[in-house]
Amino acid sequence: MQDRLQQAQKRLDSAMDRLEAAINTRTEAGTLGDGDMIEVATLRKQNDSLREATDTVGARLDEVIGRLRTVLEE
Q1: Sequence-separated (6 or more) residues with CB below 8 Å from residue 51
Q2: What is the model's pTM?
Q3: How would you classify residue 33: left for phi > 0, otherwise alpha for psi between -120 and 50, otherwise beta?
Q4: Which of 44, 10, 8 is CA-nearest to residue 24?
Q5: CB neighbour class for 9 (10 Å; exposed up to 12, middle 13-18, buried from 19)
Q6: Nearest to 23 by CA among 12, 11, 38
Q7: Which residue has the higher pLDDT, 12 or 2?
Q8: Side-chain half-sphere exposure of 16, counting CA atoms within 13 A
Q9: Rounded to whole angstroms, what are the CA distances from 23 to 8, 10, 20, 26, 41?
Q10: What would you report as the CA-atom Rg of the chain, rounded to the nearest whole angstrom?
Q11: Does 3 score more than 70 pLDDT?
Q12: Going by C-beta distance under 8 Å and a sequence separation of 6 or more, which residues neighbour residue 16?
C-alpha cells in the first residue's frame, strides 16, 4: 500500500514540476493575468495542504501496518 502511495506522490510531484515550468514560461512571456496568478497561488496552497495530508496518512498507515505485523507475529 505504501509503495502505491509513494508512486502516486512521485507522479504528482512530476505533474507539479511540469505545471510549474508551464506557469514560469507563461509568466515570462507575459501571458498570465492577475486573476491567473491568484488562481495559481490558491492551487499551490491547496497542493501543499494535500501534500501534508498525504504525508500524515502515509505515516499513520506505516504505524498501522507495523502494529498489524506485530500482532500477526504473536
Answers
A1: 9, 12
A2: 0.60
A3: beta
A4: 44
A5: middle
A6: 38
A7: 12
A8: 16
A9: 22, 20, 5, 5, 11
A10: 18
A11: yes
A12: 47
Structure confidence by residue, pLDDT tens digits, 42-71: 888 888 888 888 888 888 988 999 999 999
Q: How far is it, in rounded angstroms, from Cα 52 to Cα 1? A: 18
> How does DSSP classify residue 24?
H
Neighbours of 42 (CB within 10 A): 10
* Residues recorded for the chain: 74
As given in the structure block, the three cell numbers for residue 66 are 507495523
User: In the chain, where does DSSP find H-type helix?
Assistant: 2-29, 34-73
**Rounded CA gap, 49 and 9, in Å?**
13
